[in-house]
Structure formats: structure tokens, C-alpha cells
Hints:
Number of domains: 1
Number of strands: 3
Mean pLDDT: 97
Distance between the termini: 31 Å
Structural class: alpha+beta
Helix content: 55-70%
Number of helices: 5
Radius of gyration: 14 Å
Amino acid sequence: xxxxxxxxxxxxxxxxxxxxxxxxxxxxxxxxxxxxxxxxxxxxxxxxxxxxxxxxxxxxxxxxxxxxxxxxxxxxxxxxxxxxxxxxxxxxx
Length: 93
């Protein structure tokens, strides 16, 4: 039980960064490459790539390759659900 709670705390730490949340919300509209994400979020590609690595390590995003381009998408519907529930909660406050 304790290990599961530590893992859950680590997952919530990932959601504790507004840059990562901006990336996740951008990906709710569909898959995107690093360049497009960087442009949409007005960030440099290196910063976006770094955050995508963290999100991928925590199984919140997945990627597919098309030629030389890597496209990122939300890993599954659970990620959308977590974001939607969080948004709903703060709108109640």
C-alpha cells in the first residue's frame, strides 16, 4: 500500500508543473510534434522536449515516428479524465 501511495504522489508531482500541464492540454486537441508544440506554447523546442521526456517517463504521453518526425499524444483516456476532473474541481472553488 505504501509503495502505491508513493507512486501516486510522484504522479501528482508531474501534474504540479504548469508547463507540463500546458503541453498536456495542447495534446488534448490531438497529436503534435515538438516544433508545433513549441510554437503553440511560445517555448523553445529544447524546453518542450525536456518536459515531454518527463511526461513520457511517467506514461502520460506516447509517441509515434513518421519519417524523421516524432509525434506525441496523450497516452490514454485516463490522462484526459485526470485533467477534466482537476479542472472541474477548481471551477467549484
